[in-house]
Amino acid sequence: MNLGIKGKSAVVCAASRGLGRALALGLAREGVNLTICSRDETRIKATAHEISEATGVNVVAVAADVSDTAQARGVIQKARSAYSNVDILVTNAGGPPPGGFDNTPIEAYDTAHKLTLMSVVTLMKEVAEPMKARGWGRIINLTSMSVKEPINTLILSNTERAAVVAFAKTAATALAPHGITVNSIATGMIYTERIIELSEARAKASGATPEEEVQKMADAIPMGRLGEPSELANVVVFLASEAASYVTGTTIQVDGGAIKSLL
Fold it and tell me: CATH class for domain 9-190+227-253?
């Protein structure tokens, strides 16, 4: 299938490793030129070089903290300086720290709000008007399965990621007449460095091995395994493509069937 995005320009956030890197690589393999960002300057530059070498596309690396409004805007400005336009935006940020109702301090909500919701608001507002002028755009927000099934120990993520979906849904309605689609991904358990770190932490607490902890995670998923980053990337690439021109305002699960809700 010709996805119709070769030569377009995309911004992918939190792309130095893990899911963000996989999404950037997936787009690059379709011939999309990239601007990728991360707070780790050394790692994001290394990732940019690796993706460019592997795919032949242009990749601009930007060290930025998207929870800071000025830095988030700076990412988009650097993308425009390199490619004139931003055709595709993939928002992504590290999740807020774990915690429940009783043990999460009030100050943590403000930090999570800036990182998880306001980074999306800033980035989307920054690209929307030029996309409207061109009559084409793709915006994909990486969220979590917690937007459909809250997780007791992740109250900050439950709160702020749900707000991202609500904002995206409202924006999708406003932007649809201009040829711009806005969709969100409810990401499940995908095997990345983060899962390895989580399994090691759980193993120390339980006395099991990290491998046993990963298997416990897999056993809770109907498919019986964790997802691969490339499987998530395939969905994002589709949503970024011409083929997804009539898909907007959705929240799509990529979770192996883990979420039990009907909608």
Answer: alpha beta
pTM above 0.85, yes or no: yes
Amino acid identity of residue 40, one-letter, is D
pLDDT in tens, 10-52: 999 999 999 999 999 999 999 999 999 999 999 999 999 999 9
Tokens representing residue 196 in the block: 């390895």
Sequence ranges of the domains in the chain: 9-190+227-253
Spatial contact of 141 and 168, defined as CB atoms under 8 Å apart = yes
